[in-house]
Amino acid sequence: MKYVLITGGVVSGLGKGVTASSIGVGLQACGLRVTSIKIDPYLNTDAGTMSPFEHGEVFVLDDGGEVDLDLGNYERFLDVTLTKDNNVTTGKIYQSVLDKERKGDYLGKTVQVTFVITDHLSTFVCMKKVTNNNKFMSFSLLCGSQVVPHITDAIKDRIEAVALIPVDGKEGPADVCVIELGGTVGDIESMPFIEALRQLSFSVGKDNFCLIHVSLIPVLGVVGEQKTKPTQHSVRELRALGLTPHLLACRSAQPLLDNTKMKLSQFCHVEAANILNIHDVPNIWHIPLLLRNQNAHHSILKQLNLLSIATPPDLEAWSRRAETFDNLTDSVRIAMVGKYVGLTDSYLSVVKALLHACIACSLKPSIDWIAASDLEDDPAQSAPEAYAAAWKSLRNAECVLVPGGFGDRGVSGMVLAAKYARENNVPYLGICLGMQISVIEYARSVLQSVLCR
Fold it and tell me: pTM, whole model, 2 decimals?
C-alpha cells in the first residue's frame, strides 16, 4: 500500500480536506485506485454528538457512521463509498486499547502512551481517569524518551487495516491511501498520531510514503509582502517531530511569487518543483486542475515510485464542470431556513447538493441564510431589524429549503416558513426535520380546519 499523508500548519481551516480530495482526484485521473482516511484527534468516538457550531456538519455515511464533514468531500470528489472506519478518532483508538486491556490481550503489561517532545527540557506526566471503576491511564511526555507502543501500535494497525477496505466497488485494496491528519502541527492532542505516522513512514519505506504539508502564506496589509516565516516555523516543528515534508501546498490569496517559492525551497529544504500553490479560485473544482497544472501528480508519483504504471492525468470532465459553473449567468434565490446558519459548514452537503442540481439546470445558486428563530413572533419585538430582514429574504426567495436539526429551538419559525411556501405556491424542500415540519404545518393549518368543520 502507498500512503499520502496531508498535514496542516500555522492555522486551522486552510482546506486540508479539499486539498486531500483534490490530490486523490489527480491520482485517480492517472489511473490509480484511491481510498481516504480522516484522522480527528478529538476524544469523541465520532462526530455524531457534536454541535454543528463546534465542528461543522456531521456527515452520515451509507453504513450509518456519523463522521467529519471532510469525508463528505472525499465521497463527492472521488465517487467512493466510505465506511465509519475511514474516520479515525482518538476516542476510537483509546477505546480499542482499553477493550484489549480488559480482555487481557496485553498480558498484564502497563498500558501507556509515551512519545517524543522536542525542545522541552522537562517531563510532563498526566493521569486521567478512563473507566468507571477508577482505573487510570498515564500519559507521559518525555523528552528523548523511548516510545511505549500500545497507542501508536493501535493507530498504525487501524490505518493499515482501514486502507485495505475497498471503497470504489471493486475487488481488492486501492493503490493509494490518502490520509488527512486534522488540526495543526504542534497541537498536543495530535502528538500520538504524529509519532505513529512517523513510525509508519519508516516501516513501509520511503517509496511507499509521501508527506504533503499544507501551510499558510499570509500577506501583511501594510507591507504587502508574501511572508514565508510561518511556514518555515511549521516545517521546522514537523521535522523536529521526525517527519519531513516531500511537498508543500501553500495556501494564499494570490499566486506565489517566484522569490517566495525560492525562499520556501531554501529554508524548508523542499525542491522548488515540489512547492505547490493553492491560491483562491472561483470554485473548488478548479483545485484539482490547479494541482495538475503544477505537476503535483508527477511529484507524488515520483516519490511513491508509481511513474511506470500511471497514465497522464485525464481531467477533461473536471475542466468542463469548472468552466460550466464559471460561465453561468442566471441565478436562483434559495431561502435556507435553519437553526445553525451562523456557520455555513453546518449544511455543507445540502449546499453541495444544491450546487450540483443548479448546475444541471444551468443556474447559479444564490442562497439566503435565514435563522429560523428570526421568523417567529418574539423577535418582532425584541429584534425588529432581524425579524424584518428574515421575512424580506423569505418573500424574495424563489424556493425554500428547510434542512435537518435537533431540539425545539426555531421549530416555530420553520413552520411559518413552510406555511408561507404552501400558501404562496413557492417550491419547498424539507430534509429530515424539514420534512416533518411540512407535515406538522399541513396538519395544523389544513387538516385541523377540516376537522373543525
Answer: 0.85
Strand partners, 88: 39
337 grid coordinates:
431556513
Q: State how far the Cα of 428 lies from the Cα of 398, in Å rounded to an integer.
A: 9
Neighbours of 363 (CB within 10 A): 17
DSSP 62-87: TT--EE-THHHHHHHHH-----GGGE
Contacts of 444 (CB under 8 A, 6+ apart): 415
Q: How far apart are CA 375 and CA 89, in angstroms?
A: 38
50-59, 409-418, 439-448, range with greatest mean pLDDT: 409-418
CA distance 121 to 140: 14
Cα separation, 240 vs 186, in Å, equals 10
The tens digit of pLDDT for each residue in 263-309 reads: 999 999 999 999 999 999 988 899 999 999 999 999 999 999 999 99
Q: How far is CA 346 from CA 29, 51, 137, 369, in A?
A: 30, 9, 35, 12
